[in-house]
């Protein structure tokens, strides 16, 4: 295999070094690591095509790899084979300012992209906590704090170049803002987690940095009050930029990690975007609504530095947990429900966490109906592992029974395959047929998304 | 066949009456009519499932039919067979106010839906000119004047129940606002034009009627100025609700049909949505920008009746043409381009229209980069038919060469199959594989979207 790969790549683009294999054996989740046989670093989509053609002919498993920040074992090569690391394909190819589009290679990370875009007064709004690659973010249909306003990756991918299992290169979209031509392949390739092809180029929607922004922290007596306040703001049609919940436990972690002194009570982090006059009116209306839900206090930060500090604290929450529990592994639940079911779901989550006696904090993109429980697991304690899995199952069951999904943004990967049948029913067979016809040798990221035999 | 169908449906739900067959032989386009063998009117998804199961076993073509307002021959049964008319499945099942969702049957029309939603201060924003059914609108990924703000059907379908070729019933989505679970089937079934399944239920996103709205008409000396003004407004990040262009020829048609007295020069129809303070600032900013592009005059209509009249005039534009050219058939081009290419495209369109000596008017959803040329063709004049087809081809070639699409909102149907290979390249093979694996007997709306043999 290595000698065949040498016909495609330089020696420096192929590694079987144990440290490198180890780095590609795991993501940021609790899932058990497993090494690939070899890691390759292509520089062009032609090289990706040649690698896949070879792998397909020899039925060798292939897994694409961005930054390894996935949370459900997406990139773990349980059947070994080739891991394609996209870190050398990290060029920003073209910023089309007038069209609000940017064309990039898949290994570009979101902070790299936003640093470049900021020179033009532009930004890309999808912001998962991790500094993931855009290729990886598209593969899992990532989202984040700004998705309540700007949508998820699926909403912001205009076109992709994708190399299929047999090495064929296709485009999944168009540069036009809308199209009714052919089947919408963007929709199906975004979120396909490397099981249908490898993304080798992306054209993304970008946005002007809003004229005015105002961030706020609002504290509440109970988490139920905070959630109900969010629902009321959404129902009033206030066009909020961000609206995040952080429970008491999680505020503690934030304070500990970020050396902040936020009051340790259920808190909403908010951001308003717009023109100056409109924003003032939105803010005033939101304050009125919050008062109806026993808001304890609301503080505004219009200064850019203070606003960034507030959002950094929120973004670093997962790392705050990791930092506080050295040696433990992170398990994060990720259900998303219709907004009317959110208060009930978060209430139920707190009851189950307490019943099981687990140290879990709740946080979430409540404007989308998406929330997380962050658990730090001692992987040497079988009882704790068992309890954590039980919690995850109860949380997912609750969401599915109410029209929700088992994963709002982290994806299925290895860990959530067991819920696919329950969530999708007969539609799972349609997904399997599509997978089978596009990857007949099942080389693309095996044991992920649809193969529930192992999870 | 009829006796088999009698096992599934009542006699009143089956028709072979010539007038009925004739009504189902054509849409609103210039494409040549062709009758089905039978028209059926199911009342439940179980009946749709039984019809498809029967059709699949006997390899009988099936085409779904909403209101017959398609513009590319989507519903014409060129291979005869069964036309499923969804007019009896027209119930609004549930309005979930708190979740901003509505569950409906596919035969509900957009005015029927909005009439009901208005009782709750809510509305559904996708507004093609025709009073189409929501099932048909989802099948073609329809859009309209409000899509610049609210998106297309694909952006507003949360979930669908779809009956597949073999009679299996699936759900394509979830009720949650976002999901990273499984392949995104919504994306591929919306816009699949009845070639992958029959939609039997839809859950759609709905919106609060904006707090404040202001409509405006702005007139310009040249169409180039008007288009450049639109691009400048978009680039300034002003969150416009609607922004439509109507050229001189089309304003004439509007005046003639609606008995209005709009000045017959290139005109932008606009609408701003928002809170009162924000809207005032947006309107003032837009006026400033328009002045830089030689705006002749700008008139505002804040009064609801005047605003509705203005938008009715715009929506009735196609009917204004039909009314003025009795006996002729409508051909409408429908390309969509990156916004930076729009001014050049519209300029090119006017040159080609004049060169060919055709009486064509330009109109369009310019905020999306989507514009139409409306032509009324004398189907007895082979030279005019030939010239119209030539125009369409030149317009499409221009758009495709600049990263655009051959259809922004009308769909492929019968008429645009010939452009699919050029637009999608190798991706067309992926679409064909998906079609083949989901509809192996090719019973679902044959000769549409992917079968370029006849178009």
Automatic annotation (TrEMBL), chains A, B:
SUPFAM superfamilies: FAD-binding/transporter-associated domain-like, FAD-linked oxidases, C-terminal domain. Coiled coil: none annotated. Residues 32-209 form the FAD-binding PCMH-type domain. Its EC number is 1.1.2.4. PROSITE patterns: FAD_PCMH. It is an enzyme of class 1 (oxidoreductase). Its cofactor is FAD. The keyword Lipoprotein does not apply. This is D-lactate dehydrogenase (cytochrome).
């Amino acid at each position: 295999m290595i000698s065949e790969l040498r016909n495609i790549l330089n020696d420096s683009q192929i590694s079987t070094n144990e440290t490198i294999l180890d780095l590609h054996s795991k993501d940021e989740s609790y899932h058990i690591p497993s090494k690939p046989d070899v890691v390759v670093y292509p520089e062009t989509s032609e090289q990706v095509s040649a690698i896949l053609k070879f792998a397909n002919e020899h039925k060798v498993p292939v897994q694409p790899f961005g930054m390894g920040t996935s949370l459900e074992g997406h990139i773990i090569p349980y059947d070994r084979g080739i891991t394609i690391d996209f870190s050398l394909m990290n060029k920003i190819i073209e910023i089309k300012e007038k069209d609000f589009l940017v064309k990039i290679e898949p290994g570009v990370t979101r902070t790299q992209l936003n640093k470049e875009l900021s020179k033009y007064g532009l930004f890309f709004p999808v912001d998962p906590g991790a500094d993931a690659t855009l290729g990886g973010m598209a593969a899992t249909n990532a989202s984040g704090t700004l998705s309540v306003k700007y949508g998820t990756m699926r909403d912001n991918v205009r076109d992709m170049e994708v190399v299929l299992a047999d090495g064929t290169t296709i485009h999944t979209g168009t540069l036009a803002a809308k199209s009714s031509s052919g089947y919408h392949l963007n929709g199906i390739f975004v979120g396909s987690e490397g099981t249908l092809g490898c993304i080798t180029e992306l054209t993304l929607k970008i946005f002007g940095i809003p004229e005015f922004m105002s961030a706020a922290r609002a504290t509440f007596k109970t988490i139920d009050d905070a959630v109900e306040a969010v629902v009321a703001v959404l129902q009033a049609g206030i066009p909020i930029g961000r609206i995040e919940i952080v429970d008491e436990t999680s505020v503690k972690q934030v304070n500990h990690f970020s050396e902040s002194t936020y009051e340790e009570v259920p808190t909403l982090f908010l951001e308003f975007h717009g023109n100056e006059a409109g924003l003032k009116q939105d803010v005033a209306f939101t304050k009125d609504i919050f008062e109806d839900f026993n808001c304890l206090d609301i503080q505004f930060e219009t200064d850019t530095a203070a606003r960034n500090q507030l959002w950094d604290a929120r973004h670093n929450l997962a790392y705050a947990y990791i930092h506080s529990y050295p040696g433990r592994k992170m398990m994060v639940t990720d259900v998303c429900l219709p907004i009317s079911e959110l208060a009930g779901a978060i209430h139920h989550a707190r009851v189950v966490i307490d019943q099981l006696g687990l140290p879990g904090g709740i946080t979430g993109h409540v404007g989308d109906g998406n929330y997380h429980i962050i658990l730090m697991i001692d992987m040497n304690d079988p009882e704790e592992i068992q309890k954590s899995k039980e919690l995850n199952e109860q949380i997912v069951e609750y969401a599915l029974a109410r029209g929700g999904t088992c994963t709002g943004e982290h994806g299925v990967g290895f860990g959530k395959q067991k819920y696919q049948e329950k969530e999708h029913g007969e539609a799972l067979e349609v997904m399997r047929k599509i997978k089978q016809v596009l990857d007949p040798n099942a080389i693309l990221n095996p044991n992920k998304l649809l193969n529930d035999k192992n999870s």
